[in-house]
Amino acid sequence: MTLNEMIYHRKSCRSYTAEPVDAETLEKIRAFEMKPLYPEIKMKMEIVRREQVMSFLKWLPPQMIAIYSEKADGYLENVGFMFQQLDLYLQTLGLGACWIGLGRMHPKTAPEVDGMKFVILLAFGHPQGEQYRHDAAEFRRKSMDKIADRDDARLEPARLAPSGVNGQPWYFAHEGDTIHAYCGRKGSKLDVGIALAHLYIANEATFRFFKAENMPDIPGHRYVGSVDL
Ligand SMILES: Cc1cc2nc3c(=O)[nH]c(=O)nc-3n(C[C@H](O)[C@H](O)[C@H](O)COP(=O)(O)O)c2cc1C
Fold first, then answer.
1. CB distance 12 to ligand 1 below 6 Å
2. CA distance linking residue 26 with residue 43, whole number of Å
3. Spacing, Cα 1 to ligand 1 middle (Å)
4. b or e along 66-81 (b: 16 or more beta carbons within 10 Å of the residue's beta carbon)?
5. Domain ranges of the chain
6. Fold of 3-125
7. Which of 23, 74, 207, 215 has the CA that lies 20 to 30 A from 50?
8. pLDDT by residue (tens digit) across 88-135?
9. Number of helices and strands in the chain (H, E)
10. What is the edge-to-edge ordering of all strands in the sheet holding 43-49?
11. Same fold flag, 3-125 and 142-228
12. CATH for 142-228?
């Protein structure tokens, strides 16, 4: 499956075998190139062992990706955008994956990350049981009219994106062909970055992200950025 096809079949994996992912696959994961939203924001990923992570979750796999970033404007949506590409890639390798907000690095064994802030974990490993969804009806998601000011089939990949506690805090407003992305007040901009990653993967050749000036606030929302697809 391609990354684009994976948008319609992926799901969070919460059941893994105890078998660690082999060194050759780890190398492929490290070498995977992710497009950033903000190329100037420094970030770093480290593949860490389960024992280095503090979390009450019992089902975590033997290895995870710890994501660090410089804390600059836009860093949360940048992390969501980049690592959702990796989430899709991991699943094309036949691995299971799940974003983990409920975990952090053990201070004694945390890797050195030159001044960057720990942001979040992405768990991955060999899945136990059924790994893919078969069709869009298996996604529990808000309807298009709840997430956009008009029906737009181009937004379907964003509608299906994963988010923390499935909050789906994104809202999309149109101005001509441009789509302005907003984040609900209770949501994280990281989730909106994830939704934008699905728009990028679905429109790889033409996707353009930019910040428009003086965007109006939509009540209860913060402006994140705009895309041409
Ligand atoms: C930023 C973020 C943090 C998440 N944190 C957790 C977590 O700590 N534990 C967990 O079981 N799932 C976590 N998830 C997975 C979401 O619950 C899941 O993506 C959402 O319910 C949609 O389901 P799906 O990914 O299977 O489509 C997280 C997802 C995101 C995007």
1. yes
2. 19
3. 22
4. bbbbbeeebbbbbbbb
5. 3-125, 142-228
6. NADH Oxidase (3.40.109)
7. 74
8. 999 999 999 999 999 999 988 888 788 899 999 999 999 999 889 998
9. 6, 10
10. 43-49, 63-69, 117-125, 96-100
11. yes
12. 3.40.109.30
